[in-house]
Amino acid sequence: MDKKVNFYSIPRSAYVHIPFCRRRCFYCDFPISVVGDRLRGETSGTISQYVELLTQEISITPIFGQPLKTIFFGGGTPSLLSIDQLQKILKTLEKRFGIVPGAEISMEMDPGTFDLAHIAGYRSLGVNRVSLGVQAFQEELLKVAGRSHSTADIFAAVELVRKVEIPEFSLDLISGLPHQSLDCWQDSLAQAVGISPTHISIYDLTIEPGTAFGRYYKPGDLPLPTDETTVKMYQMAQQVLTGAGYEHYEISNYAQPGHQCQHNRVYWENRPYYGFGMGAASYIEGKRFTRPRKTKEYYQWVKAGCVVDCEVTPADEVLLETLMLGLRLAEGVNLSTLAAEFGEKKVEEIHKFLQPYLAKGWVEIVEGQLRLSDPQGFLFSNVVLAELFAELGE
């Protein structure tokens, strides 16, 4: 490396993992705990115990001197928390780190898991961004995916979000589900556009080992859509959503102007962040650390004092992470910034390696920004990034 990389900036964001779900979706490999259809925060001793341990972890985490600008409650299903439990977590974060006025506070929510009183309570505590896990608008596909909600639940949830005037509203869809046709996908996109959320996330199904789908299906086999069909789904989403005025600002994410997810940009720009809760990852002082993924081990870790034992990420790995994450964004990465942090020689190596992809039009250099083209570069991002990782990682 030509110079020492300065990646010791101050974390201003926090991810909080709430692992509880009514059931495990068939595609899910996240660290979760199933509590059944009837329990939520105020009636579950399991959730209450977890919140106690979670706030204990937050309370003993070292402080780095700046209040939080973004907080993201992910899961799991954070909307299973009671209002009091969410308030306790937010108060603990405020007391420990501080929260700036108007901070982006996001919460993942599933249709059918909250009512007007709950979402109004969340809103009163400062939640100003909701990510609604819709996934599909067809009853048969919701059942195929193992989702616990119906299409009626989706529209009821949207009405509640609007009623309490959540200013930032994201909607999640999954492409490539078993039995999902292009017509079904087109219908889901049309219904999403009709709802007009400020943000839409499109995720292509990945068959993960250990999941129900991992036991049922092999990638490329029926009833999964063919690779050709999933490519058409991606292209269709790009055409429909950009045609409806959404900016395709990241490989899987679209936003109306001025409504990008500020928390997720922290990840893509490889900036530091706190992580709290079972299986949560953090990136602080150049160190990446993932908490235990199982309940018992996480509880033992917290009770033992939340010891973080890991090494500083080597500068070469920081470069790879910066490229792998930054090239997910539509604007890509700034070559001058890369040269200043990692040296001109490294930038020359990157440029030389990417020549074949520049020739294919998958990669572009526009006004000093290295980026993937949309949609072709994004479609083949796994090829470009995997080979770039292999080349620079040698």
In terms of structural class, how would the helical and strand content be classed?
Answer: alpha/beta
CATH superfamily of the largest domain: Aldolase class I
**Average pLDDT score:** 93
Question: What is the count of helical runs?
Answer: 16
Strand arrangement within the widest β-sheet reads: 9-10-8-7-6-5-4-1-11
Q: What's the alpha carbon Rg, rounded to whole Å?
A: 21 Å
**Per CATH, which architecture of the largest domain?**
Alpha-Beta Barrel
CATH fold-level topology of the largest domain:
TIM Barrel
Q: Helical percent range?
A: 40-55%
Task: Describe the secondary-structure layout.
Elements: E1 13-18, E2 20-21, E3 33-34, H1 45-60, E4 68-75, H2 83-97, E5 99-109, H3 116-124, E6 129-135, H4 139-144, H5 151-163, E7 168-175, H6 182-195, E8 199-204, H7 212-216, H8 227-243, E9 247-250, E10 253-255, H9 262-268, E11 274-276, E12 281-284, E13 287-290, H10 295-303, H11 315-326, E14 333-334, H12 335-342, H13 344-353, H14 355-360, E15 363-366, E16 369-372, H15 376-379, H16 381-392
Parallel strand pairs: 1-4, 1-11, 2-3, 4-5, 5-6, 6-7, 7-8
Antiparallel strand pairs: 8-10, 9-10, 12-13, 14-16, 15-16
